[in-house]
What does this fold into?
Amino acid sequence: MATNLKERESDLDEVFARFSDHPLGFYATAENAPSLSEGRVRELGLGVLAERRPALTSLINAVKAQGMNLETAAQTLDAPEGLLWKLHRRLIAFETIPQAFVEKLAESVRRNVDEISAYLRQPPMLAPGASYRADTAPEALVESFETALSNDPDVTDAMRARWRES
Amino acid sequence: MKDIWTPHPLTRTRKDDGAAYRREPSVEAEIEKLCALKPRMRQASLVRGGEGRVKEETLVWAIRECVREGDVEMAWTLAELLTERASGHISRQLAKWRLPAEDAEDCTRDLFAKLFDALFDTEPSGEFWEVRFWVCLDRRLWNLVERRQGALDVQLREAEAPEGSESGETESLLARLTDPNPGPEALAERGAALSILTETERLAVYLTYVEGLPEESEDPERVTAARILGVTGRSVRNYLRRAEEKLRKWRQT
It folds into this structure.
């Protein structure tokens, strides 16, 4: 039954297409002032999208979905690539990450700050494919944002200064 | 994202002439080009804005490819892009109706919910979205607004005249309006005549007099004016009657 309804929807779309193409010009253009601005429509649409979109499960996939790789994402964020790997695996304590960095990260992967924050707050991930002999999984080493920056050999003075100030 | 994408042909056929659905040549060309790219370049091409950005139908196709492959993150990123692109169009379309802002907001939310349902449904019944994206979007908006407008339109309904009155004279007016081979006089008056009708009245006249569809039918499979408009047969008759009345008055002035 559901399929029949969808089939019928498609038939109705076909008729509507002929209406909008009709040379007599039945399909008029708007002349009234808009009741909703384009910005408000976008805001409502993105709100519906946010309700339906599954929670972020991989920072790397989110980066890739924007047509970037980790290197270009790191350049955009003015941060070393290694730091992004650590953020992906949640090896940086969330409360130590500057808010400005979280905002910039959210902007670069086109997610809102709450979604990114929720992802970064989750427990750390072990390296994929890692094997261990103990009965319980080893705990991943979590460090502060500042320590991660200090220990990264690729970090520049400018990067360090920028994120320390924020 | 899979290394190689294959441009799947559409499988459905048109109801009117039985021809297979076909995407616009420009969309087919974009799809072919995207399929030949490596994943990262493909992603970058899909999300690129400005000049050289892909068409909306191509984005619909790409979203469905991502869904088929399980690349949900990419699918939602493209859906977000489509949301941003559609916003201006929806705002302009809503302006045709003069709905109160609160009702316009409800319609907009419902429209986006319908849009996302359609985008993430990979069944062939949704293939027309890859053929005419804006048409599919407009029809759904039309239905949503009509339902809302109908609820608000109590005063007009209360004032409605008995059905079928004075139809002989005015039917010829509507037939003249929809004549496919108009004479010079009819052609000149047509633009003015259409401009006095509302969106819904124009569509009701088109569906009934140009497409020749019945106003309503008990057969649930039958395409009718009421089903296209998303309203009852009684409402369709009311639209036609209002159109007739307006045209008659317009002819008298």
In short: The first helix of chain A runs from residue 2 to 21. The mean pLDDT of chain A is 86. Chain A touches chain B through 58 residues (CB under 8 Å).
